[in-house]
Amino acid sequence: LDSLPLQLQLQLQQTFQPLSSLPAQKCGCKVLMVSVGSKALPLRRPKHHSIVEHSPISGEDSEHKQGRRRRNMGRKSTKQQKGSNGGYASGSVSDKTMKDKKFSKKHDPAEPEVSYVRKQIDPETAKYFSEIADTLESGEIDLEERSIICGNALEESSGKEVELCTDHIISHTMQTLLDGCDADHLCGFLRGCAKNFARIATDRCGSHVAETAFNSLASHLVVQNWRSTIEDTLMEICQAIVQNPVDVMCNCYGSHVLRSLLCICKGVPLDSEFHAAKSSSVLARRLNLKGDGELKNHTQNVHQGFPDVLEFLVSEMVKCSTPNIATLQVDQYGSLVLQTALKLLEGQDQELIQLIPVIMGCKMENAEDGNLIEKTEAENIRDLVKENAFSHLMEVILEVAPDILYDEIFMKIFKDSLFDISCDHSANFAVQSLISHARSQSQINVMSEELGPRFKDLLEMGRWGVVASLIAASERLHAYEHKCSKALESAVTSADESPKCIVPRILLLESYFFSNDKSNWSWTSGNKVHVMGSLILQCLFKYPSEYIEPFITSLTSMESSHVLETAKDGAGARVVEAFLGSNASDKQKKKLIKKLKGHFGELAMHPSGSFTVGKCFDASDVPLREAIVSDLLTVQRELSKTKHGPHLLRHIDVDGFARQPEQWRSRQKSKLAVYKEFLAEFGSPEGGSSKGKNPPADTSKKASQRTSIKKMRKEIDNVLTSFTASAEGSKKRKKQRIW
């Protein structure tokens, strides 16, 4: 009571007496009515849905049973994940990134907040739902009976939805009921609690119930018969939420529920990256390390969705939140809801052009003149982007903004301030997103002119993600690649130093740039390859070879022990694989592979190293392939027991080499000959010089071409293997006939 207003405390004290002084009238062990003041209030008992008539249990046993249920059904506390380091690309819509100020509500003082007192659940209702829980947990009923029981129990919850869903114990039962009922009862329950849905969604226990209801709705959407009913139900919930959306958006539980509601309206899985994207997947997209096909698989719609409901929810939610938009911009949970909404509307340019300026705090009066962002608003946004929550929001805005709006944001907010913004721990992520989603070569030119000369400063500050993003964007748009590679070379070496030190310093990026004596720095065994250093080199090796000669020379000049240490490291192995897949000359690739000679068996025992061995084998000539298979033959038994070993042994055909070495060599020569003929005829997907003047390449075509080359190589291997096997079989049959 102490947390309630004084007037409300006095009113409650006058109305209610302590429970110990309330006389109860009993019949057996069932409470029929209880007296409050001078009135006798009858308690509602279940009328016709009782499942099993239990014998009366003593109060001591009842307390023991309730205590055991509390222990067994307690919710796990959610662990807060750490946000990403300043040097790493961040996840755009992930709960892990929250380190900003606590939310302080800034509502209009003219609208006083109404206190809500949660009603107690009467004992008879609590007992009824306890019996329901016991019956469902017994496992003695079939699916049809279970659905009927769940539906009947949900009917009994009518009028008490908030109290039941927010109860620590009964909320678990409600989740079971919503998961097991039919669509009719599910929609009926949601319509019944629509007006109070915000209270359920913002409660620690109630939010789990709401999530379960949405998951159950999604499963029922596969049956088209219920589509209209579900759409009406969702619209009713949305209409209730938009009455006061800020409270739900800025609540840690409500934010999660609201994002799930947005996802179900769009028709995407509730656990998709729209809800909470991993930073690794965001980073892979930004650095062009993930194919378009892989991205589409993660974002496929599971049902048609409800476009009208989604548009209504997002537009009304933003419209009603406009007076409090400054709060939402810096609130960690409110920002997440806006991020999800924007990602779900990607491609709907008209809606985004209306929403994004409002979310950034711009006045829409200027939109008619084509001037969406004023000078004072641009200055305010530059300050806001240093806030953690708004920085993540800006990342998504830059990702989904239509071209015309992206260009205005770039020219008015970021241009001439790129380096200053990049220096900030949070704002540098927005710069990474800006660069990664650049639309034209001219934009890349401006970015490289401004940031290229400052690569060294950025690397020394640990803003590695900004450098990696610019290198990747330059490769994607085939713009100013030579300029970017030269800028990186200058950042890592001085004019009088040999280029041989470039790659080792980038591989051990943190060790070198945070060294007290850079002039005497040398490779230190035992240091792990830096993840962002590895990613920078992977992006760089996609450049035409004439632009990266110093980097190729540096890698192929490394000591054999350092190359082996790099190949054994997970991040380092990716660099070796990227180099072997580049359009560097065969001679340079073989020079690197020879440094691993005698260690392929050791390397293959590492899960990441096994992929590197496979890449080395594919890039080798027949003598080098024989050296690799000979190394693997010594560890064949141990390697076959690992998870990755059997695939590698089949790929290299170690058994074939052990049985018939000469025929193995013949097969390898045939494969290499056919593969070279194919490349001579159709060309390599990695080949070809790309000058800055060339038009941007179609990245989807490029990715599909790489996939086709991989399939072609497998097909060549399979055809030649089957041909050789059939030839061997015919020879054996001839010998048998002669005999």
TrEMBL record:
Q: Does the keyword Repeat apply?
A: yes
UniProt keyword annotations, A-Z: Repeat, RNA-binding, Translation regulation
Which residue ranges have biased composition labelled Basic and acidic residues? 96-110
Q: What are its GO biological-process terms?
A: endonucleolytic cleavage in 5'-ETS of tricistronic rRNA transcript (SSU-rRNA, 5.8S rRNA, LSU-rRNA); endonucleolytic cleavage in ITS1 to separate SSU-rRNA from 5.8S rRNA and LSU-rRNA from tricistronic rRNA transcript (SSU-rRNA, 5.8S rRNA, LSU-rRNA); endonucleolytic cleavage to generate mature 5'-end of SSU-rRNA from (SSU-rRNA, 5.8S rRNA, LSU-rRNA); regulation of translation; ribosomal small subunit export from nucleus
Q: Does the keyword NADP apply?
A: no
Highest taxon listed in the record's lineage: Eukaryota
Known Pfam families for this protein? PUF_NOP9
MF terms in GO: RNA binding
GO CC annotation terms, alphabetical: 90S preribosome; nucleolus; preribosome, small subunit precursor
Where does this protein have compositionally biased stretches of type Basic residues? 66-79
**Annotated spans, Disordered:** 44-117, 684-711
Which residues form the Pumilio repeats? 316-357, 595-630
Q: What is this protein called?
A: PUM-HD domain-containing protein
* Gene source species: Opuntia streptacantha (Prickly pear cactus)
